[in-house]
Structures are given as structure tokens and as C-alpha cells.
Amino acid sequence: MRRRRPPCSPITPLIYGAPPRLPAILPAMINRITGILTGRSNDAVYVSTGGIEWDIAVPLRASALFGPVGEKTEVYVWLQHYDDGMKLFGFPSERERGLFFDLMKVDGIGPRQALKILSGIAPPELTAALETGNLGILQKISGVGPKLAQKMVLALKGKLIDLVNEGGEGTQNSSPWSDVVTALVDMGFDRKAAEASVRARASEVSEGQEGERELFRMALIDLSAGVGASRK
User: 57, 59, 83, 187 — which has fewest CB within 10 A?
Assistant: First the structure.
């Protein structure tokens, strides 16, 4: 009896040969992988879940953020599908993965280049450099020249700050700027330093969404420059 061929799926070509052509990049299929960190290299971590060990490409700078080998870890991932295989990219936070997606919106930046950029600079510093148009900082990143730095600023300046959709978990706080502090802490800044910077800058902005955005921008610049801790 002739074996019935099932509908095409991403693994069908491994069994039955080439199906109809698939898109170069599939929609997100996996959001997060939680398991035991079994090892790491310069540009990858290995996570074991249910008898499967995942090889996940990560930013070099972030490799240590996944914790010690042998302990439980959590990786936010994105699966790239290309002509002859698949590749998992991983990040220590959902926010950093979002920045990875933003970088890929820039003409000339693909997944590998975006990962390389995040290997050379921490997300808060990268966001601040893009927001202020600091081409000098951007050009210090390996693989980023003057033209690409300009493209990054033109494409992303003013588009990485979105407090409307990222304004915390709905918790109550007496400070009118608590959402700004929460957003800064989520990016990796110290809470006390973030609160001090926001408190010092709050008198310079008006209330409302535009005020929140401007306060976030100013505090982000202060904290990235290392002056937030001195504003008390």
C-alpha cells in the first residue's frame, strides 16, 4: 500500500523531499525556551528541555546573563528559516529581543548583523545613542560604519520609546512618573538611580504621554552617561 503523504510542514522536506517553496523567514513559532543551561560558547548557549538540547545563538555580551551552567535558565527566542536550514536566536529579555527586531527594520541589517550589534553594545546604551543621534558611539560597534550608523539613526530615532504600550503591569504607585521608572528598570538600570534621575528631571516636563516620553528620553540619556546616580 502506498504511504499517504501528510500536509507540508517545516519538517516535511527532511522526510519527503522539497515541498512548495516556503518563505525565507517564518512567523514566530517559539516564544521562549525554559530549561537547564548545559553549556555555552562565545556566541551560543545550549539549553536542555525534555531530552532535547537547543543550540541558540546569543549576543556575545549577553552570554553570561543566562546564569551558571547546570541551573535553570530562560531564553526569549526567534526562529529564522532559510533555504537550507533553521537557526534559533536568543535573548535574556523580551525587551532585548524587541530591539533585535527593530534593528532588522534598518536597510542592510539582517539577523546576524543585528546580533553582532547587540554583542557590541548593551541595549540601554544603544537606545540612548540612537535617540541622541550619537554616530560616534554607533561607529565603535564592530561592523557599523558611518553609512550604516546614519541609516540606524534615521530609521530608529524616536521610535524605540513607547511608554503607551510598555507602561508597566498596571500596578498602583503614588508617583505620577512610576511608569517611566518601571520602563528604565526593565531596561536594566538600577531602580534607585532611575528614581533619582526621574525625580530630578520631572520639573522640566509637562504631565501626559508626551511628558512621559520626554522624561524617559532625558533620564535614559542621564543614566547611560552615568550621571543618574548623582541626581539625588
Answer: 83
